[in-house]
């Protein structure tokens, strides 16, 4: 008969299952407040401001996991140079691998990828499609006229190209400096395209700007809305915001970073999808707004979607129902770069907010504005942020944090802590303190199946093994501390290797907690595992001739 291992804690020990799953409730978010989220993928690609714009691509490969869309514009909007051609990449949410790239035309200086967005299925193939802004198109003397391209999510083929009015003699208007999925503005069953042209000229003067909604069905113009004052750069940011007036038509918002109306610092206007009339006007007082605008989700849980914007040293969330300020996270050092609705990260019934600022990104609780998570980055680097959707199917909203200066996009999982070390290692017989470590992500289904537990600084050329189980303890053992409670399991013996011909601390162990191994040993999503390396140490007399690392605990992810 096959032995059945029944895990139960020994006296004085702790047995934990951390639910990184749906139904956890608000307690999970509070327990993990300000901790780091698990990084599922670190996507690294070619330099050139990789990740300057980043969004969820939706599930373009139909594997049940939302994918990642990243823009690489190659320069900034103030430059018209041959280096500013740009491209975009689409990456698997399951593995982090690149699915395909889309390049600007040869010798282009169109700044393709400065803005990106995902939209629903426009060509009827069952996959979401992509919106990409190229605000410097077509280059040359008309550099900055701008173009927006709609690509197939299946393979990146071009479906449609949209252009602006080109009101200035040079055509310079930066059409496509911002793009967004507007939602179904005209209620025809197809999602529509929203584009900002921040330098577009209208009857209110040069640089007043405009924004335009195009039909996703036939690319006809549904609405065009205009800035009120020359140089206020209306259209610098755009976003679909959902149906804020509950009339059955998706509404949209446009940011104006240089509006000074009534002494304010920027503004945001929310427009009705039904008729293009203004529903809300938000003025930047006291914090600056309008440089970025986003759908916040239902932050106050009143059944109406809300609106987020930033533009200075913080971010503000406005009620979609009343226009009142719901959250104001202004007042900290470092200008905010971007903002997005994160989804309900901690499952408390309130949509949360992800905010990027100089050297860091934060997720704020929609309930009370407290910091749920914080990500530190390199000095003088500014991230881009976006909602990722539920990448690991645990019912929790995940986020994207891109570092364009490092050419990295990180997929950050919510609700599951990173592995941590605990307990004390035993000094070995030649005076070294062995250490346990880890790499990769302990997921049962997503990622690249790369989670390993390692030991370094161990005695060379000795046999060792990993002890692991579901019980944490701290008990005297072999002249040191046993950190894994009974019952526990042992891996096969490993040799530590090390420098040839020397007795030193160059030994090393590594064990792969593969997806197959975890499944075969009955590990489930939410289980907390504790592990410690034991090894031979002939420099000590029995029964203390044992080397002991400290220990690591990790939560098994879906």
What do you see in this structure?
The protein has 558 residues and is mostly beta strands. Strands 30, 33, 36, 37, 39 and 40 form a six-stranded antiparallel sheet that branches. A four-stranded antiparallel sheet has the order 2-29-28-27, with no helix packed on it. Strands 3-4-5-6 form a four-stranded antiparallel sheet, with no helix packed on it. A hairpin with a 4-residue loop joins strand 20 (306-310) and strand 21. The longest helix has 6 residues, at 26-31. It is elongated, with a radius of gyration of 27 Å. The two termini are 31 Å apart.
Question: What key attributes describe this structure?
Answer:
558 residues, mainly beta, 6-stranded antiparallel sheet, 4-stranded antiparallel sheet, 2 helices, 40 strands, 2% helix, elongated
**What is the overall silhouette?**
elongated
**Multimer state:** single chain
Please tell me how large the radius of gyration is: 27 Å
Q: Give the low-pLDDT segments.
A: 1-35
In terms of topology, how is this protein built?
Layout: E1 14-15, H1 26-31, E2 37-44, E3 53-58, E4 67-72, E5 87-91, E6 98-103, E7 115-119, E8 129-134, E9 147-151, E10 158-163, E11 175-183, E12 192-197, E13 210-214, E14 221-226, E15 237-242, E16 251-256, E17 267-271, E18 278-283, E19 292-297, E20 306-310, E21 315-318, E22 325-328, E23 336-343, E24 352-357, E25 360-364, E26 371-376, E27 384-389, E28 398-403, E29 408-417, E30 420-422, E31 435-439, E32 452-458, E33 463-469, E34 471-477, E35 480-484, E36 489-490, E37 494-495, E38 507-512, H2 515-520, E39 528-536, E40 546-555
Antiparallel strand pairs: 1-34, 2-29, 3-4, 4-5, 5-6, 7-8, 8-9, 9-10, 11-12, 12-13, 13-14, 15-16, 16-17, 17-18, 19-20, 20-21, 21-22, 23-24, 24-25, 25-26, 27-28, 28-29, 30-40, 31-32, 32-38, 33-36, 33-37, 33-39, 34-35, 39-40
């Amino acid at each position: 008969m096959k032995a059945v291992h029944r895990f139960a804690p020994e006296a004085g020990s702790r047995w934990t299952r951390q639910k990184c799953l749906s139904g956890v409730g608000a307690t999970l978010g509070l327990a993990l407040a300000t901790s780091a989220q698990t990084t599922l993928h670190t996507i690294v690609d070619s330099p050139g401001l990789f990740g300057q714009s980043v969004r969820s691509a939706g599930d373009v490969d139909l594997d049940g996991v939302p994918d990642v869309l990243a823009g690489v514009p190659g320069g900034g909007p103030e430059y018209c140079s041959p280096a500013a051609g740009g491209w975009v990449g689409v990456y698997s949410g399951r593995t982090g691998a690149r699915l395909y790239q889309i390049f600007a035309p040869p010798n282009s200086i169109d700044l393709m990828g400065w803005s990106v967005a995902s939209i629903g299925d426009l060509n009827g193939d069952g996959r979401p499609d992509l919106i990409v802004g190229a605000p410097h198109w077509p280059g040359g003397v008309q550099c900055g006229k701008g173009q927006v391209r709609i690509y197939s999510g299946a393979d990146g083929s071009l479906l449609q190209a949209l252009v602006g009015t080109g009101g200035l003699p040079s055509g310079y208007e930066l059409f496509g400096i911002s793009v967004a999925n507007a939602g179904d503005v005209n209620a025809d069953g197809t999602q529509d395209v929203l584009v900002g042209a921040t330098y577009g000229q209208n009857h209110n003067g040069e640089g007043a700007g405009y924004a335009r909604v195009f039909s996703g069905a036939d690319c006809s113009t549904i609405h065009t809305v205009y800035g009120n004052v020359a140089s206020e750069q209306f259209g610098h940011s755009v976003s679909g915001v959902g149906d804020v007036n509950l009339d059955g038509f998706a509404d949209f918002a446009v940011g104006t970073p240089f509006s000074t109306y009534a002494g304010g610092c920027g503004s945001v206007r929310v427009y009705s999808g039904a008729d293009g009339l203004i529903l809300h006007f938000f003025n930047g007082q006291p914090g600056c707004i309008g440089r970025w605008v986003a759908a916040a989700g239902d932050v106050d849980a009143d059944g109406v979607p809300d609106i987020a914007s930033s533009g200075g040293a913080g971010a503000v969330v406005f009620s979609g129902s009343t226009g009142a300020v719901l959250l104001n996270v202004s007042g900290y050092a470092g200008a905010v770069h971007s903002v997005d609705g994160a989804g309900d990260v901690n499952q408390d019934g309130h949509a949360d907010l992800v905010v990027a600022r100089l050297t860091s990104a934060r997720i704020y609780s929609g309930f009370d504005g407290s910091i749920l998570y914080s990500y530190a980055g390199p000095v003088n680097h500014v991230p881009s942020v976006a909602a990722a959707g539920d990448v690991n199917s645990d019912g929790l909203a995940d986020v994207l944090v891109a570092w364009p200066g490092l050419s990295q996009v990180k997929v950050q999982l919510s609700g599951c802590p990173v592995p941590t070390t605990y307990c004390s290692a035993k000094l070995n017989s030649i005076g070294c303190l062995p250490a346990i470590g880890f790499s990769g992500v302990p997921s049962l289904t997503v990622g690249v199946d790369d989670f390993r537990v390692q030991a370094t600084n161990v005695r060379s050329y000795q046999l060792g093994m990993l002890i692991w189980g579901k019980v944490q303890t701290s008990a005297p053992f072999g002249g040191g501390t046993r950190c894994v409670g009974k019952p526990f399991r042992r891996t096969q013996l490993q040799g530590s290797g090390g420098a040839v011909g020397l007795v030193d601390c160059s030994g090393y162990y590594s064990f792969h907690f593969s997806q197959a191994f975890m499944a075969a040993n009955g590990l489930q999503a939410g289980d907390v595992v504790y592990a410690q390396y034991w090894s031979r140490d002939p420099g000590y007399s029995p029964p203390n001739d044992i080397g002991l690392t400290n220990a690591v605990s990790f939560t098994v992810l879906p």
